[in-house]
Each structure stands twice: as C-alpha cells, then as structure tokens.
Design a protein that fits this description.
CATH topology of the domain at 6-47 and 378-496: Jelly Rolls
Radius of gyration: 26 Å
Low-confidence stretches: 435-454
Distance between the termini: 22 Å
Number of strands: 43
Shape: elongated
Strand content: over 45%
CATH class of the domain at 6-47 and 378-496: Mainly Beta
CATH superfamily of the domain at 6-47 and 378-496: Galactose-binding domain-like
Largest sheet: 8 strands, antiparallel
Length: 497
Amino acid sequence: MTQQITSSIVTTSGGLMLDQDVYSMPPGAATKLQNFEPSVLGGYRRLSGTTKYSSSQPNGTNVIQGVFIYQDRVYAVSGGTIVYGSGDAWTSIATGLTSNARVSFERYNYENSEKVILVNGSDQPRVINDTSVSTISESSVNGSKFVASFREHMFYAGMSGTPQEMVFSAPFNEDDFNSGNGAGSIKVDDTITGLKVFRDSLFIFCQDRIFKLTGNSSSSFVIAPVSRTLGCLDNFSIQEIGGDLVFLGPDGIRTVQGTARIGDTELGVVSKAIQRRFQDISLDRISSVVIRDKSQYRIFRPTTGATEVSSEGIIGVIKANPQGQIGWEWSEIKGIKPSCADSQFINDDELVVHGGFDGFVYKQEFGNTFAGTNIQASYRSPDLTLGDAGIRKNMQRINVNYDAEGAVSLALGVKFDFEDPATPQPADYTLSTQSTQAIYGSAVYGTGVYGSEGFPIIRQSIEGSGFTAVVKIDDASSNPPITLKGFQLEFTPGTRM
C-alpha cells in the first residue's frame, strides 16, 4: 500500500533568531540569515551589492572620516580635506582639518539657506554653504563632537573640557554666541554621547542617561529626563526610523519611546532576538544608516584589523508579520566595512553611501557584488519538527517558493536530526531558477519551475529521513538577488521514536 504523502508549509518570516529555544522558534524564522534582508514585501531577499561612487579616491588612501549628501552631491572628508564629487572627480573646497578625526554633521536651513555644519572633536566647527566653507571661531565650541539644530539654535556638545555641557547659538545664526541675542549654555549631570532632534524635542544622549530639551528659546528651554538608568554608547548609532529614534544601548538596539516607558526598561530593547551579537560589542568604529524605502536600519561594527570580507553588520527591518503585527526582524551583513555612512533622497531616488578605510566612497544598493567580491549569502531554517518530533519523516520533495530578479543558481541542503552524524545526511542539491518562468503545466513534474510570473516554485526531489529537518540555502555568486518566500516539505510519516 502506498503511504499518503503529508506536507508542511513554511512561510519565511520572523528574521534571524539566536537566543530562542528551537522548539519555541517560529518555523519561518532563521538561525542563520547572512546577507539576506527581511523584506517589507515578505520573505528574505539576498542583498544588493555595493560599488565605488567614483573610480578615484577623494584624498589618496586616507580613511574617509565623514561622508554626507547635500545639494544633490556627495561630500567627503578625508585626510583633513573637504571635497565634493562631480562625475568621476573630486573637488577640494577646504583643508586644514585634523586628518584622523571622525566627522559628525548636521543639515539645516536658516532663512532659506541650506547648509551643513561639521564637527570632529578636534577642530573648530566648519560651515559648508554650497561649495564655500567658513569656520566657527567661538572658543567654547572648539573640539565639539556633536552638533544639532533645534528651534533655529545650533547646539554644540562633546567638548573635552566640558563633557556635560551644551553650548547653543543665537537663533538663525550658528556663529552668534552673544547671550543678549539668545545664545547660552546648558549642563546635564552625565557625559554627553550624542544629540538628535526628534519631533518637538532635542534628545541628549549620555553615557548612563537620556534627557530631552523642549521649549522655543533660551528663556523657555527646559530639560526633562527620559531615562536615568540607560544611556547611548555611540552617537553614530542614532537614527530616526518608524516614527521613533533607535540607538545602541548597553543591552542592544533600543528605541527612545520604548526606553521612556517608566518602570519597564526592557520594553525599549528591540534586538532581543539577536542579543548575543551585542555582547561585548566593539565601539571601535560604529556607523549606521537608514534605508527609508525598505524601512531598514543598518548598523556596522568593523573591528581593527578586520578585512572587508570578514567585517560584520546588522540589519533591522520594521515590518508586519503574517498576523499583521508590526515588529522588528533582523539579519546580518558580512562583507561591507564602512568608516561612515549616509543616505538621502535625490529627487525620487534614495542614495545610500558609505566611506571606506581604503579611501574610496561607495554606493550601497548597486550591483550584485560587494565591490567586485561575490556576496556570501546563507539561510538556515530552525530544526523543524513538521508536526511531531517523535515521528520519523521520510522525505520526498521540497517545493521552494521564490522571486528571482534574474537567473540564479543556489545550493540547497536538507539535513536531519540536528545534523547528527549518526543520521545519514544527503548531499546538497543545486537549484537553478529561470529569469522567465515556465508555463504552468508544461514543466516536467519534480524537476521544472512553474507558477505565475513573480511567484515561481522550484520542485526538488530529496532523500533521507529524520525526526527533525533543517533547510539550508546558500548563494556565493554574483547573480542577481533572489527573495525566499517559503517552502513546502513533502514526506511520508514513518515510525514513532
């Protein structure tokens, strides 16, 4: 008698989970998700690549200490020189900055004049107005690390001699520090580690505390505590996304609004699923960027001496799960090593750039390689019980639901019983997609690709048996991205353990 085939469908959703018991982990989550991104459209999409913004370096092999988008141009700071990119060339507009000092910046608009102000923790602030550069001469803001424009006042902080103090300018003038005109200073009771304007407040991040400043002028500015137990580790981790501010705290990635909830500091941690990745995290060179089109936050944490290929980062995406609940899903990046990063819309297109330790500026979300190196992408499902961990499953087929942006070849593995050496493990299979899907009904059953355009299915016969199964997919090519939507395992039930 032929046994009836049973099937189990898994929709890829939930993202990377590293700190959850295998039996309580959602089947659509991943125990490894490297160089895949959780997609707001569903599934896990292999990352797009990176490419050089220009074939030339702004200033030789000097590390890019700052990069930002302004006036539809890309500006960079390298070797103490400020440059902007035009075509394939860089034009110098200022020199004399400390060559190895990392740059923070603020875009602002006073009286219909768009400018950028730069600080680097060593020099006087610099103001960029199109292609001209001026220097803020005020001694009290010399060596400021952080800068933010709030209520048309420019706030400076992070000066080495006054680490708990903010100095602010008169309104509509970043270089006027006359108290009679509305300038002044404010102190907090902790060392400041970052500034960020959000909604109607200036958030003041400190080592162990967070404050917010409200009001409209020097006469009405008021500081209130947001948290007196948790602070921000690095200014370069702070970004606005999803109607909130995210930042790197001592226990992982946090949101300001969650952290502000009195009596429940745990509520602010959104990276619980991958918490181990933030244990003893190196603060050597944190950088972050938001990709708004994808509701995506990327934080990079290259370590001293790490190669480009071995450098790591984290992706967080705000998306709805299959039940319609909004939350964070996570994955990992390996192979990008930014020294700094920025993103902005130019017309209708979002440009994402990062500086390199090699002196080049790069574009993210371009091409199918990381600057010429194949992208090493890997997915691992949880160990799936397929309904009952006590019953052996004799595997028949796997049907992989995918959306490919071109012809792709993948390595597929199905392993059993937590990859126990005592259980026979079949060799990996090669899955080849097609850029043009086969017409439903015309493909050979068990081998062909079929389905409507955009939602094809690969059917692959598989061997082996076990009480649990894990699905592995690897792509180490320069092929176009593919989105893994889910898969269906077909099997016949065997004996009970």
